[in-house]
Amino acid sequence: MRKFCFFFLLSIWVWAVQTVSPIHQIVVNGFAKDMVLTPADTLLIATDNGHIEEYTISNYEKIKEISIPKVKDFMGDMMPARILSTDRMGDTYLLLSDSGKGGYSNLFVERQGKLTQILSPNDKEAIIKARFIDSSHILLGYLGDEVALLNIDSKKERYHVQLGESKFSDFALNEKKTEAVFACESGILSVIDVQTGKIIKQLKGQNLDNVYRVDFKNGMVSAAGKDRRGALYNVQTGEGSYIEGSFFIYATALSPSARKVAFAMDENNDISIYNTLTKSKLAVLKGQKSTLNVIVFKDENKLYSASDDNTVMVWDLGKQN
């Protein structure tokens, strides 16, 4: 009887942790550096080849491509600008890129075929990430762990706030774009009010080193750490916990309900899916070819992942091997 129970429990565990293969692969022109799922149900992908590509999620058809001018490298040669960050608000697209000049950034918006430059190297802004807040404002994350809210029309900042003394890594907005969580090298996460830039709360104690990526869904934050910890925080209470990985954790994402979390947990670039309440592993996604940059959930089962190559993977937890 005892032996039967052992094998029964083992069979349940094997059944629960399934290996999942991608159901589709989107091949883009360049290495994918950033990716967002837009309200229009399209996938917007930024590359290191100076452009963004937009695909439908129904049949993965490319419907739009926007390129920005080439930049000079340190040798004076012209080369494609690396798009660091992208977003879409209505029919307006955002493209943040490096400029090849002193680490400063270029910021463009495109609307109905017209490309407008908002910031150039002359503005001497070292911005790493940008996202639309509304049709007139962009939230900016600076290399020096600063946050600013930029008005697109006036090209002026409503505020510019220093959050900490460490190097900035990533930020993520909540669903209503009223709050954002900022990550840095210290492992401390700052939750800010988007309209004022004021720190509402600091989340700490789970990551002890650089946090590469964060996500913010349904009152929960996930954090991917250099210390091999995938951290989870309840924003309201500040309470946190972590799941131990076997390698640097470069990427993370939460499902819309925040009941599931994805972490890139090992050196094989596999993506592990966990139940956020029990911390039990639900699935392992295998097939990613290189170091992960970003993971995005569409719903509780469908997700997308992009890494340092030209292939974006599409996954479905409901279609397991």
Low-confidence stretches: 3-15
Helix content: under 10%
The class by helix and strand makeup works out as mainly beta
- Tell how many strands the DSSP assignment holds: 31
Number of helices: 1
CATH topology: the name is Methylamine Dehydrogenase, Chain H
Radius of gyration: 20 Å
What does this structure look like?
- This protein is mainly beta and 321 residues long.
- It has a single domain (19-316), classed as Methylamine Dehydrogenase, Chain H (7 Propeller).
- Helices cover 5% and strands 53% of the residues.
- The strands form eight sheets. It has a five-stranded mixed sheet with strand order 1-28-27-26-25. Strands 2-31-30-29 form a four-stranded antiparallel sheet, with no helix packed on it. A four-stranded antiparallel sheet has the order 3-4-5-6, with no helix packed on it.
- The protein is globular and about 55 Å long.
Give descriptors for this structure.
single chain, 321 residues, mainly beta, Methylamine Dehydrogenase, Chain H, five-stranded mixed β-sheet, four-stranded antiparallel β-sheet, 1 helix, 31 strands
